[in-house]
Amino acid sequence: MNGHRRSSAGWYSPRTMPEPEAATMRWYHDVAYLFGGAFLANAVPHFVNGISGHPFQSPFASPPGEGLSSSTVNVLWGFLNLVVGYVLVCRVGTFELRRTRHVVVLGLGVLLMGVMGARVFGRFYGGL
After folding, report:
1. How many domains are contained in the chain?
2. Which of 2, 71, 78, 125 has its CA at 20 to 30 Å from residue 27's CA atom?
3. Residue 92 and residue 90: Cα distance in Å, rounded?
4. Looking at the domain assignment, is residue 62 inside a domain?
5. Which run of H or E residues covers position 77?
6. Is the sign of the CA dihedral 115, 120, 122, 128 positive or negative?
7. Per-residue pLDDT tens digits for 3-45
8. Alpha carbons 81 and 79: distance in angstroms, whole number
């Protein structure tokens, strides 16, 4: 009947019908969202420096993490981080922006990677 379903409590529209999977948050969803936030945060400096044409540190430089990689390598590395972050956040569990726990765990991953990146790259750019 027009996409509506009947329950013992009354009629549910497709928007308000509770989802059985959303009620169970598993511990590995938290881990995925934490690492997803870290990968998303790590994508930003590599992608931005790459599309700006600036060389930047990457794991593929010599020595790894200290030498500079080309802008093309950084665009590709930043994009890979973006894809991994997307998979961890959007394809593991059911991430919802309106759930405080989901956003806090994701934000914690972003914050931890941001602080770690600031400390590591601050050695090279005088930001310590």
Report:
1. 1
2. 78
3. 6
4. yes
5. helix 71-90
6. positive
7. 555 555 566 555 655 555 555 678 999 999 999 999 999 999 9
8. 5
